[in-house]
Amino acid sequence: MLLKFSKMHGLGNDFVVVDAVSRKVYFNKEQIEFLGDRNRGIGFDQLLIVEPPISPEMDFRYRIYNSNGSEVEHCGNGARCFAKFVIEKDLTNKSVINVETKRGQIQLIVQDDGEVTVDMGEPSFNPVDLPFDATENDTALYSLELDGYGPVELTPVSVGNPHAVIRVDRLTDELVSGVGPLVESHSSFPANVNVGFMEVLNRDEVNLRVYERDVGETQACGTGTCAAIVAGIRQGWLNSKVTAHLLGGDLRIEWHGEGSPILMTGPATKVFEGQIYL
Ligand SMILES: N[C@@H](CCC[C@H](N)C(=O)O)C(=O)O
């Protein structure tokens, strides 16, 4: 099969995006791993597939795979690229696009300046939703014992996909590459977890690095940013509108507390189009 694709990124979190509306496309795990291989395939953090919706009220269905072939519930930076892709490919002329995901619905709002705001829905702090096997009852911070490292304090957050948010005094490579994988695959997270390390600069700004589940550290993680900011707001550390500085650039997050949705705004960039034999 000759597969047409667009290579895109949101702040350096990179994607291969495929139109499965105009033509049916199926991938097996080996094909996804091949496409995701930066040396032998195309290379990406996530593969995004644009499909027709199941529900008639929705505009599209959004499927997401990590580069190791695992299917995931949500990808925030990918959602902004998804919006740009469906408009560029003339799959819609709407600027407010309703999309089904594996875990619920999201809304993509294309702004006049080309940036995209994603209504990510409401976060959940209930450990069961990640899942996270909590030893304590509902508390804002949980302590997790890491083999050979000791205890870390974290906030479990689900924004569709699972995140563990760790507040740190200073971000270091050692933390992200050392603690990241230990938390990602800790037995208390049966489905594994994305791990965010957040340095609070002031009530409106944070530095953030994310060690993504099944991928490793990425230049930016949209859902990871939403999870970190809502955890910080809930703890009382942050105001309701925050700018997160990631390795790949800045994302703006807005959240007004329990019962309200998270709004994430940032850029989406197409790099090139291509085709590859599968
Ligand atoms: N890069 C993403 C998140 C992708 C999924 C994640 N690796 C997972 O396994 O949940 C984003 O921008 O949100």
From TrEMBL:
Substrate binds at N13, Q46, N66, G76, N77, N161, N194, E212, R213, G222, T223. Gene3D superfamilies: Diaminopimelate Epimerase, Chain A, domain 1 (3.10.310.10). InterPro entries: DAP_epimerase_AS, DAP_epimerase_DapF. Pfam families: DAP_epimerase. The keyword Transmembrane does not apply. The record marks F272 as: Important for dimerization. GO terms for biological process: lysine biosynthetic process via diaminopimelate. GO terms for cellular component: cytosol. The keyword Cytoplasm applies. Keywords: Amino-acid biosynthesis, Cytoplasm, Isomerase, Lysine biosynthesis. Pathway: Amino-acid biosynthesis; L-lysine biosynthesis via DAP pathway; DL-2,6-diaminopimelate from LL-2,6-diaminopimelate: step 1/1. PROSITE patterns: DAP_EPIMERASE. It is found in: Cytoplasm. GO terms for molecular function: diaminopimelate epimerase activity. It catalyses: (2S,6S)-2,6-diaminopimelate = meso-2,6-diaminopimelate. The record marks H163, E212 as: Could be important to modulate the pK values of the two catalytic cysteine residues. Its EC number is 5.1.1.7. The active site is at C75 (proton donor), C75, C221 (proton acceptor). It comes from the Bacteria. Homodimer. Belongs to the diaminopimelate epimerase family. NCBIfam families: DapF. Catalyzes the stereoinversion of LL-2,6-diaminopimelate (L,L-DAP) to meso-diaminopimelate (meso-DAP), a precursor of L-lysine and an essential component of the bacterial peptidoglycan. This is Diaminopimelate epimerase. It comes from Marinomonas balearica. The gene is dapF.
